[in-house]
Amino acid sequence: MNRLSPIAAALVAAFAAPLSAHAQQATSDNPAVAGQLAPVTVEGKRDDFAPGPTALSKLPADLHDVPQSITVVNKAQMQSQGVASLSDALRNVSGITLGGAEGGQIGNNINLNGFSARTDIYLDGFRDRGQYYRDTFAMEEIEVLMGPSSMLFGRGSTGGIINQVTKKANLKDATEVSASVTTNGLVRTTADYNHKLSDISAMRIEAMAQNGAASTRNQTNVQDFGLAGSYVHGIGTPTEITLSALVQHNHDQPDYGLPPLNGHPVNVDRNTAYGLTSDHTDQDVVSLNAGIKHKISPDVTLRNQTQFNYVRTSAVETAPNTIGTVSASGFTALTGAASALPLSSLYVRAQSHDRDIRDYSIFNQTELSAKFSTGGIKHDFLVGLEVGHDGYDNQAYYRNGSCNGRALTDATTPTSGYADCIPVVNPSYSAAGSSVAEAAGNHQGGTANTIATYFGDTLELNKQFKLVGGLRYDRYVASISNSLNSTNTPAAAKNTALAYANQTVNFFSVRAGAIWQPSSAQSYYVSYGTSFNPSLEQLTGTTGQQNLDPEKNRSYEIGGKWDVAQGLALNAAAFQITKENARSQVSTGVYELQGTVRVNGARAGATGRITRDWQVAANYTYLDAIVTGGAVADTSVGKVPVNTPKHTLTTWTTYDVAPHWQVGGGATYMSQRYATATDTVQVGGYTRWDATVAYTQKAYDIRLNLFNLTNKMYYDALIQSDGGRSVPGSGRTAMLSVNYRM
Predict the structure, then answer these.
(1) What is the DSSP letter of 85?
(2) What PROSITE patterns does the database record attribute to this sequence (predicted)?
(3) 470 φ/ψ sector (left φ>0, alpha ψ -120 to 50, else beta)
């Protein structure tokens, strides 16, 4: 019998082990072709939180063979929590914080391990760079790979990557329909239909529609619908072809949060919003994917996959910009560190954030994987080629209005978009500011071409020791342009946008690791990885950045993974991520590669069944993050990076208290954060509690989810622009849902 190490034993004790085994029932499928054994399917309980094999083809399927931390949020966990969006799903991953709608960006803006993951969101292994709000109706699970991983994914991935795994057709006929309603008035329905077409082919269709208020906050109405589908041919044969598509339309009111006052979010009612009733964001999303996988032999597989993504966003939005006073001379912004004026005497200057954005990309990946032996050493080898093209087009518009009869703009801010002034306390929600004439502002464009080749190998030296290594070469060629820029606007001293810029980056990324597996239930590892960030990575840029070398990131990680009994997986790791050559602003329009950002951290997690009836998903992350170097004039040196809490803890557990009855709940804890790079706006820590109770049958579930049980006032997302805005979380909300299976 294999014995656990002292470290593993300590973790087992901490998570209340030893545990009872969970019985699994093996069932046989339909008889196979004569002369072959019928396939055997092993089924556990339908609502298991425990992750299965990773869906990323660049990684081994067994998580024990990956020398990095991976957190998986699967369909069962999302359903028990009432999750409907990518942002809600990622609340289960400690070390992740959310950003809100930005002036130049929109959609899911995420920080991972202290670094922006804006361009590190993936869909079935392909970069999903579009700026949109992602739903989970077509998702099987969300995989989060921690740490720099450019050897696997190319540019970006400083803190890690987030991969959305879509549902795929299979050979089991099934239909699932759900409907839910919240106390906020949000009504939502989804459908999932899978149909076996033949012994080797199947189709699957998913649909979603929702309408109503997304939270207790004012002006958060959504009206969305989506359709996704897949067709798979050749299931169980040497050659498998997969076609899939996702189409989604969003008609939403993004939340721009509250402006700062005296170093904290302004102290008003949590449901206060400063937009206009006419504000909206319309988005059309199209994703098309085609792949073929051919087994040349049992140990050699060739894959080719192409994905096309297109996102069109049309936004008319008004956001709080600055707090000040109003007099006969118009609006005057507050200056200085603090203000003793009563809130009732203050106003918020509102700014229009209108734009029409088109984001698209097309990428192709070809990979050859092979298992073979040389001199007694087993190899799991991968070699690949990736080519792709990204495009970005952003036409901005602005509405220059007035306050108390005085224009809010002058010669130095001709395209500011300052539209109105609104009382800080009890603002009225009207369409008044929308009557201001809209004018075309900056027209921003960008394209990029990528070609990369990579290889990786896992060497099994013996049953206990494995070495992991890989190398990738990327050539990234980008160009951008701005119609309103530093050379042609009256406010040239303030406008640092580039008229035009080209950039070519050639970069080698590496990955290395060692794994010790004293038993099949234990895995210990050390790893090293690198990544890079070109200055034109987001197809935007300001003067001084176009000729800079890419930022360079590296990480060291040591950790362990343990399987306890048959139901619970534990993991723990310590790591350091360092960004060098970080862009540091020396003066207006002048940047140098003098910055250094360092994050020392640790994480631990547990996922799976403690007993047959009790399961848990919990993880904790500690981040000691600091900007350790930069230009002399860089005021962020010595500060904690934006939106990076030192402690985050997420827990969720369910217990089957009786046949057909389940209760559950969990807490999310996050310590204080800063909304600005200079740490001048602080947002306090919080603990939020959620709960669920469900009546379950083989054919249907009836579930009640309770969000923010204690009605805690907390800030969910932080936005660095406009002096540091903070978006309050929703108040206490209940959701009743019915899920029916046929």
Answers:
(1) B
(2) TONB_DEPENDENT_REC_3 (PS52016)
(3) beta
CA distance 12 to 4: 9
Pairing mode, strands 330-333 and 347-352: unpaired
Residue 201 DSSP symbol: E
Question: 239 by DSSP, 3-state: which?
Answer: strand
Which amino acid would we find at residue 586? V
- Looking at the chain, the whole-number percentage of residues with pLDDT higher than 70 is 88
- Whether the per-residue pLDDT at 28 is higher than 60: the answer is no
Q: Is 31 helix (H, G, I), strand (E, B) or coil?
A: coil
Lowest mean pLDDT of 25-34, 75-84, 415-424, name the range: 25-34
Q: Helix or strand or coil: residue 422?
A: strand
Rounded to 5 degrees, φ, ψ at 655 are -140, 130
Closest listed residue to residue 722, CA positions, set 119, 107, 101: 101
Cα separation, 183 vs 216, in Å, equals 9
Give me the DSSP letters along 252-293. Answer: E-----B-EETTEE--S-TT---S-TT-EEEEEEEEEEEEEE
Pull the structure tokens for residue 614.
């009790």
CA distances from 60 to 49, 326, 455, 469 (A): 20, 62, 14, 13
pLDDT interval class at 632 (50, 70, 90): low
Return the number of other C-beta atoms located less than 10 Å from residue 2's C-beta. Answer: 8
Structure tokens at 557: 């990680």
**In angstroms, rounded to a whole number, what is the distance separating the alpha carbons of residues 607 and 316?**
42
CA–CA gap between residue 313 and residue 282 (Å, rounded): 6
Q: Retrieve residue 556's tokens.
A: 């060291």
* Mean pLDDT within 681-689: 96
Q: Which two structure tokens, joined as six digits, stand for 178?
A: 């759900």
Q: How many residues does the chain have?
A: 742
pLDDT tens digits along 175-194: 999 999 999 999 999 999 99
Instruction: Name the more confident of 41 and 261.
Output: 261
Q: How far is CA 240 from CA 166, 211, 294, 596, 674, in A?
A: 17, 38, 6, 46, 49
For residue 18, cis peptide bond before it (omega within 30 degrees of 0): yes
User: If 0-12 CB within 10 Å is exposed, 13-18 middle and 19+ buried, where does residue 172 land?
Assistant: exposed
Rounded CA-CA distance 120/108 in Å is: 11
